[in-house]
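S1.2 Input.
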Amino acid sequence: MELSSLPELYARLKGIKHIALDMDGTIYNGGTLFPFTIPFLTKIKEMGIGYSFLTNNPSKSTNDYLAHLAKMGIEATREEMYTSAQATIDYIKANHPQAKRLFILGTPSMIAEFESAGFISTADDASDIPDLLVVSFDMSLTYSRLCRAAWWASRNIPYIATNPDRVCPTDKEVVLVDCGSIYTCIEHATGRNPDVVIGKPDPRMLEGILTRYSLKPSEVAMIGDRIYTDVRMAYNAGAIGVLVLSGETTMDIVTQSDLKPDIIARNLAEFEDMVINAYANTI
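S1.3 Output.
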């Protein structure tokens, strides 16, 4: 839904009780924290608005993300983090309760998170048959493990991908090939797509936050730098979709997109100004 007037914009902003924040491209770019991020977090907390960090990037465990944020000067709690790896774990436990043995195409940090949740990570061995295949954003990817994942996909076992992102934002001069591109490679080799793709834009990513804080979708603003994940998930979940232009998306992409964000801001600082103006305005 596009906000058609200033009064409507102010009314929606005044109703926000919680902000779900994408990470890469929104609060930082690669290893570089945006200068407006900490002032933004401080201000919205002063205004009584809660926030959570919601990321499609499952390559780090929750503890690794908290350490990464702390190194940048952001003190966060486990309750304030929700990754697509956590959402995938929740999905498997709810929908495949008998699945314990997983072949996981993912980083060692992500595999450790699954193992700490009670799963067994199977080896790159045709005799070590998993109950389920999980494909993810794997920066430690090796050719043999990619081929093994394709083999299990071809065997018709349950197959889940953690997120649909084609690339991961970075401040380095390189393209970081993400989960969506990896499972497209497997699809090209085997003819099979994942049964389920977790992560934004799947509304289950936001439902975890709604449940945790007893919120209605209309009380949550999802802020991110991508239309096809962040804004689409907000739309799917009935939340407010806020696009920031500090990451992947340009106005040219917005113009060409069939889905328009509820709100567009250059960055978190501009969105902060919008919220402050909404509370100060009596329209």
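S1.4 Remarks. The chain has a mean pLDDT of 93.
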